[in-house]
Amino acid sequence: MPNASPVGRWTAWTVLAATALLTVGAVVAWAVATPPYTATQLYSLVDLLDGVVYGVVAWLILGRQRTGSRLPGGIAAAAALGSALAAFAAQWQLAVGGPPLLTALHVWAWVPGLYALVVVMPWLLPDRPLRRLDRIAATTGLGYLAVTVLALATAPPPVGVLPLTPELREARAAVLRPLAPVLPYALVGLGLLAGAGLAWRWRRGPARQRHGLGWATAGSTLLTLAFGVTLLPPVLPAVVPALLMLASQAFFPAAVAVVVLRQQLWGLRLAVRRTLVWYLMTAVVIAAYCLTVALLDRLLPPAPPVPQLVVTGVLAAAFQPMRVAVQRRVDRLVHGEAPEPLLHQVMHSVGRTTDIGATVAAALRLAEVRITEDGPQPPPHEHGPPLTVPLTSGDRSVGYLHAWPRPGELLGARAAESLAVLAPVVAAVVDLAGTNRDLARSRQRLAEVRDEERKSLRRDLHDGLGPALSGIGLGLAATRNLLRRDPDRAEKLLDRLTDELTARAAEVRELAHGLLPPVLADGGLGPALDLLRDQYARAGLRIVLHGPATMEPLPERIATAAYGVAAEAIRNVQRHAGVDRCTVSLDQRPDRLRVTVTDHGRGVPAGPTGAGVGLHAMRERAQAVGATLTIGPAGPRGTAVCLTIPLEQP
To answer: What are residue 632's DSSP bridge partners?
Structure first.
C-alpha cells in the first residue's frame, strides 16, 4: 500500500486480521454445531458475508486513502467488525454456549456499521466537498445511530450490556418509550431519503461525478427496502426477508465498488479487480446455495443429504461459466472496453490521429494516449514513462503509440494486450491519415504549379505576343497612310509585317507544342522530344538525344509524365546551368522506362533541392505514375535528373 500513511496501513491490516479471525471462528463453530437452515441461520450468513466483504473494503479504503474524509473507511470497518462479531457470537453460542454477552453481540453488534451504510454512507458518495444539506443529513444519520446504539446497549439483559441503576432505568424508559416504536421506521425513512439524495446527484450532479451513481442508488434503495420488509406483518415466510437481506447485502457493496472504480474515490486503485471478482463469485455462490437448499428442503421429500448434494453439483458445473461472465464484466468496468468493440470507434477516427488517441484512452481507462510519427522516444509527460507500442503498416514503420496510466495506477497485462491487438488497426488508420495529408499537400503544390504555369503563359503572351501584335497593328495603319503617297514604301512595310506575323505564328505554335505536344496523345515520347530539341536549338541550347531507334508506344499518362519531367529539367538547364548543351537519354525495357537529363554546368546547389516550383512539379508528375525521381550531381560538375517509371507487364 504505497500511498497510505503508517497509521492507515496498520489500521487496515488490523481490521482485516480481526475480521478474518472472527470469520474463521464463526465457520468452525458452525461446523461443530451444524444447525438446521432456518431464517436465523440465514441472518447469521448475512452477518458472515458482511464481515468478509466489508473487511476487504475497509482494508482497501483505510490502507490507500490519502485525502478526504476518514468516515467512509470507519463505516466500512464498523460494518466488517460488527457483522463478523455478530456471526461469531451466534455460532459460538450454538456450538458451546457462552455468557449473555454473546447474545447481546449477536443481536446488535452489526447495527452501527450496517445502519451507517443505510443512513450515512450514501451522503458521502461521490467524494466531494459536502454541501450544507449533505452535512445536515449525514449528521442526522449519525445522531440516529447514536440514539439506536444507546437504546440497545442500555436495554434489559441479555440485549443490553451497560448496567443501569433503577433511577437511570426509569429515565431511559421514560425517554425511549415513545421513541422505541418509531426507531425502525425512522431507519427506513432516513434510508429512502439518502437514496433520493443519491438519485438527485445521479441525475442532476456534475457530469464527472455521475459515473456509477445509478448503481449506488439502486443498491442503497434495495438495502433500505430489505430493512423495511422486516417491519411488515408476518405474511411472507420468515426465510424471504432473510434472503432479501442477503441479496441486498451482496448487491450494495458491488454498487459502491462501481462508484469507487469509476471515480477512483478515496485513493483506491484498479488493483481491486481480482478482489472484486472474488467477492462477486463468493456472493453469487453463497446466495445461490442458500436459496436453492431452502427451496429444495421444502419441495423434496425428507432426505437430508439430497438438497446439499444436488446444489453442490449444480454450482460446481456452473462455476466456471459464471466466473468467466463475472470476469468479463469486471474487466470492462475496470479496464474499459475489449479491443473488438474498440475497432469500430477507431475506424470512425480515420484522418484524425488525436481522435484515435482520445478514443483508446477513454475506452481503456487510461490517462492519455498519444500517437507520434517521428520516433520511439515518447514526449515528456507528467505521468512518467509510458507503454510504447510500435505501429507498422506492411513493412513500414508509420509511428508509435504511447499510453500513460491514470495517476497512481499501473498498466497491467490486459491493457498491454489490448493495445497490441489494436496496434495494426491504429497503424492502418495512421498510415491512411498520413496519406490523406500527403494528398492534400500534393494538391496544394499542384495548384501552385498550375498557377506558375499560368503566370508564365501570361508573361509570354503579354510581354511577347501582345506587343508584337500591337506593333503589327500600328504598321498596318502606317501602310494604309502610305498606299497613295508612297506605294513602294508601303509594299516594303507590308513585306516586313508579313515576316513578323509569320514569326509570331511560329511562336504561338511553339508555345502550344511546349504545353503539350500533340504526338503525346499517341504515346510518341521520342517525336515529342525531337520537337522540344528543335525549339531549344533556335534558342541556343543544343540537346543531344540518346535512345533506341524505335520505341514501343507508351500509355498517354506515362508519355506525358516523362515528357513533363524532361521538359522541366531542360528548362532548368537553360535557366540555371550556364551551358549550351545537355543530354537526354531514353532507356525502355519491358518492365520500366528510364529518362535521364544530364548537363555539365554549375551543378546542384547546396542545401535542400525541393524548394522550387519546377522541382515540385517534377516530383508530382513522378508520384502520379508511381515513378522514382532522383536529382543529384553528374560527376565532378553538372546535374543529373533520372526518372524511372515502372511499366505494366502485358
So the answer is: 640
* Helical packing angle, 39-64 and 6-33, nearest 10°: 160
Q: Among all chains, which residue has been given the C-alpha cell 548543351?
A: 581
pLDDT digits (tens, 9 = 90+) for 549-588: 788 888 888 888 898 899 889 988 988 888 989 999 999 9
Residue whose grid cell is 418509550 = 177
Task: Report the alpha-carbon distance of residue 615 to residue 73 in Å, rounded.
Answer: 71
pLDDT tens for 278-297 read: 555 565 666 666 666 656 65
pLDDT per position as a tens digit, 510-542: 666 556 666 666 667 888 888 888 888 887 889
Grid cell for residue 257 = 465498488
Confidence at residue 81, expressed as pLDDT on a 0 to 100 scale:
94
CA nearest to 560, candidates 617, 616, 613: 617
| Cβ atoms 401, 369 nearer than 8 A | yes
How many angstroms separate the CA atoms of 466 and 474, rounded?
A: 13
d(CA 464, CA 535): 16
> Are the beta carbons of 517 and 563 closer than 8 angstroms?
yes
Asked if residue 378 lies in contact with residue 403, where contact means CB atoms within 8 angstroms, the answer is no
User: Average pLDDT, whole number, for the chain?
Assistant: 77
The helix, strand and coil proportions of the chain, stated in percent and rounded to the nearest 5, come to 70, 10, 25
Picking from 536, 517, 628, the residue whose alpha carbon sits closest to that of residue 582 is 536
Task: Give the pLDDT confidence of 368-416 residue by residue, as tens digits.
Answer: 888 887 766 766 666 667 888 888 877 778 888 888 876 656 666 667 7
In whole angstroms, what is the distance from residue 586 CA to residue 551 CA? 9
Which CATH number describes the domain made up of 520-646? 3.30.565.10
pTM above 0.70, yes or no: no
Decide: residue 244, CB within 10 A, 0-12 exposed, 13-18 middle, 19+ buried: buried
- The C-alpha cell that represents 398 in the structure block: 508509420
> Could you tell me the residue ranges of all domains in the chain?
6-268, 272-335, 340-434, 520-646
